[in-house]
Amino acid sequence: MEFRYLGNSGFKISEIIYGNWLTHASQVENDIATQCVQAALDAGITTFDTADAYANTAAEKVLGDALKGERRASLEIFTKVYWPTGPKGPNDVGLSRKHILESIDGSLQRLGSDYVDLYQAHRYDHETPLEETMQAFADVVRAGKALYIGVSEWDAEQLRNGHALAKQLGFQLISNQPQYSMLWRVIEKEVVPTSGELGISQIVWSPVAQGVLTGKYKPGAEAPAGSRAADEKGGANAIKSFMRDDVLTAVQQLQPIADELGLTMAQLAVAWVLQNPNVAGAIVGASRPEQVASNAAAAGVRLSSDVLGRIDEAVGDVAQTDPSLTVSPERRPV
Predict the structure, then answer these.
(1) Domain segments of the chain: what residues?
(2) Where are the alpha helices (DSSP H) in 68-155?
(3) Rounded-to-integer distance, Cα 108 and Cα 235, Å
(4) Element (H, E) at 297
């Protein structure tokens, strides 16, 4: 495993991050989830990402239980706040001071920890003044409940404004967590250059495009039984934007490139996002322990400019590049 600094800080994280969206307390049983976490530790992964909204808080508890007994200082644990949780009342959502301060305490209790290494705004809250949100995050840091603050899916202007307020309040905004893959490149034109200027790193989710970049989905064919595209608990909805025949046909053209490099398609996809110097880590999920070990092997892989060019040619114009696709809900979800 290799490690990278997160933003303009002295804090290091593993290049491969284990995340439990759509898996823990949902797609996989708790004992399998624990095996996956152990596989991550065995592979040298020390960074774990979750959120209070995953399985309506249950995923945090599963992760905390799976990490119980590990040396806390040797781990980097991330969680997030924004989406509705609990009974989903009017104040159980968003980035108000009330919701942030109550949510961090709930997350720490479920994770079984006195602090999280990184606390992230899971989206931008258009209904709360940014000053209120950033002041609440500053107080969370000063209380020792989070060491660093990050965000997720903020656009370039939101990052710039949040960074300026954080600086005024005496703490650092060091990360953004966007979707990023060969097929979803919407951060490249605006978010990445702005982040580089501000000293903010990307922690990217869905580097394998919800499993599409494994090549297991064939154009014109039914989704394999047990796959995410066949999962009615949420996986199928999350992956549907990639399940077009033109996308799946382009993905099949990546197989010879992976074969030449001695990589699986998933390893090639994860390695590709890590070539971006603004990316500090790639989040991978798993429903089986062996998937974790396989994805972790992408750490340290370096792709030549020739290979990167061939990937661009194979993917062609099916990749999404429009920066306006980085959006947060105009109204808080209910």
Answers:
(1) 3-325
(2) 97-111, 130-142
(3) 27
(4) none
The pLDDT tens digits of the residues spanning 247-259 come to: 999 999 999 999 9
Backbone dihedral region for residue 88 (phi beyond 0: left; psi -120 to 50: alpha; all else: beta): left
Cα(227)–Cα(67) distance, integer angstroms? 27
CA distance 235 to 208: 14
pLDDT digits (tens, 9 = 90+) for 286-329: 888 999 999 999 999 999 999 999 999 999 999 999 999 999 99
Token pair for residue 69? 């007994």
Coil, strand, or helix at residue 201?
Answer: strand
Q: What is the DSSP string of 256-289?
A: HHHHHHT--HHHHHHHHHHTSTTEEEEEE--SSH
Residues with a known catalytic role:
54
Q: Count Cβ atoms below 10 Å from residue 325 Cβ, excluding itself.
A: 14
Separation of alpha carbons 206 and 12, rounded Å: 21
Of the options 3.40.190.150, 3.40.50.2000, 3.30.450.40, 3.20.20.100, the CATH number for the domain spanning 3-325: 3.20.20.100
Residue found by looking up tokens 């798993």 in the block: 286
Taking alpha carbons only, the member of 182, 318, 184 closest to residue 245 is: 318
Between strands 3-5 and 12-14, the pairing is antiparallel
Write out the two tokens for 115: 């602090």
